[in-house]
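Replying to the earlier thread about multi-chain prediction with a worked example.

Input:
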Amino acid sequence: MNFMASKQPENFLLGPESDSQRTLYPYVTGTSVVALKYKDGILMAADMGGSYGSTLRYKNVERMKPIGKHSLLGASGEISDFQEILRYLDDLILYDNMWDDGNSLGPKEVHNYLTRLMYNRRNKFNPLWNSLVLGGVKKGEKYLGTVSMIGVNFEDNHVATGFGNHLARPILRQEWHENLSFEDGVKLLEKCMRVLLYRDRSAINKLQIAKITEEGVTISQPYSLKTYWEFSAFANPAQGAVGTW
Amino acid sequence: MDLNMNVNAPHSMGTTIIGVTYNGGVVLGADSRTSTGMYVANRASEKITQLTDNVYVCRSGSAADSQLVSDYVRYFLHQHTIQLGQPATVKVAANLIRLLSYNNKNMLQTGLIVGGWDKYEGGKIYGIPLGGTLVEQPFTIGGSGSSYLYGFFDQAWKEGMTKDEAEQLVVKAVSLAIARDGASGGVVRTVIINSEGVTRNFYPGDKLQLWHDELEPQNSLLDILNAPSPEPMNI
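Result:
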């Protein structure tokens, strides 16, 4: 009888290479993160879902975390890799604090560190399976950047990961402008998150919005968005076209 | 009927495992079926494994992988307890499991639920699925049988249950999963951990509540055939 390898699918490592590690597929994943610059700093939004394939398995996952005094990190993709990145950043910030020299790593520096981290892992064919959004304010300067799992990085006035790239960025391109107020920024993010809720299968209706300003980081309590279903065409899809599917 | 049953397939615990907190501690529950392909290699396995006096782990997935991870973590925790001078916390146990699961994610195929009680945080449950994510939750389910329980728990779970309510919920849930998951079966085992200590319970398959389309077990057809006919009515 054949002894079959336990779990590995066909495209996995061949025999002799099985010592070297490589992440080939994610297990527990988070979906889009959306962020924008506004008058006082950065606003970032992400839902609290951790999907396990098509199952919406975990509904209380915090996908945005403060980093040091000046930065906020949001992540989509494999949650275990995000947790590992937080550990790396913890070490980095601790090391920075131990210098006790009055300086502290700003968002630009943290973004650079993450870029190197992600790109070097990609080169070893063992990526951290995440798309990261790093936002912050230091000495009045606002910073918002993103890094993907293959090390592609850039900064912009508004960024998004995953489905957000396709659904949220067009909205942001149209409606973002300099010096958004807090209220307008939140409303714009909520508009994006609502569209994602309608159209992204892995989105759940429980999200947090985080704000980072010169003063520091605030992450909101989890909350849900109202959704609209009262279009008459929704109630009677076949009205204008009897017999339609 | 497949005569070439793969009895050399890796032992896998199809499994239903559950961990639930209540006001005062935790209840861990599991079925007892270990399968090798289609054959049930062990119908009375013990899937809730002790790590320390106050921390236990529910194992699912590959039997070998979950046993090894448990053994290593039990070993590390033993040393840690000696060095620390007091019982290890549930969080430490869970993080050790996470470390092994995450760093060997390409080779391991095991989902674990760590549950226990310590004097700092009380009863805590940590889920560590495939990939090595660590998630602390008020309750969690795992294993192949858990697919059938998401809806059940969404409806039946309440905050602040008593010990008995929590245990009954767990037994009911494992029993429901066994009813529908071919990879789960056998008996329901529970382990209750609180400040007073650890209680292990055992619910054999024939003592569980019957669900839809299940019949009361009989000794033999003959008992049914020879059953007395109903009494004629007296009007």
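The radius of gyration of chain B is 20 Å.

Feel free to reuse this layout for your own posts.
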